[in-house]
Amino acid sequence: MAAPALIAGLLWTALVVGVSSTPGTRVILLPSEDGRQTAVVVSNAGGAQTVSQPYQRATAQVGSKESPRVDQADPAQVRAENPELFELLPAKQSYFDQRLLPRHWARLTECLQMP
Fold it and tell me: In b/e form, how buried is each residue of 83-106, taking b as 16+ CB within 10 angstroms?
């Protein structure tokens, strides 16, 4: 299952390193699939900013003497502007609790004995 995780990571990276209308770098941190806290540092000649909240955006202008500007992107707008990126993400995995309650053992045994 490393391949889907790698693909998802590359897709997230593709969105993180986005193109802005002005020369520079724009980074949008997307939420991790498993809910873990993530962060990225965006820096230029003017300083550095840490982006650590889902859909938080940092914009660093080329040649600027100011630290990158940080604001909050609208999740719906990010998805609307990058639909092909989100379509490429692998389907979320489902996990099931495989513990059986005592009342289920009788039915399971019965089903296994069926022809």
Answer: eebeeeeeeeeeeeeeeeeeeeee
Residue 111 is assigned to a structural domain of this protein? no
Could you report the per-residue pLDDT of 99-108, keeping only the tens digit for each? 767 777 777 7
Asked, for residue 109, whether it belongs to a domain, the answer is no
Q: Read off the tokens for 102.
A: 């005592």
Beta bridge partners of 28: 57
Q: Give the domain range for residue 59.
A: 2-90
CA contacts within 13 A on the Cβ side of 92: 7
Instruction: Give the model confidence (pLDDT) of 26-64 as tens digits.
Output: 999 988 877 788 899 998 888 999 999 999 999 988 888
- Token readout for 36 is 């873990």
Q: What is the pLDDT of residues 64-100, one digit of tens each?
A: 889 999 999 999 999 999 898 888 877 776 665 567 6
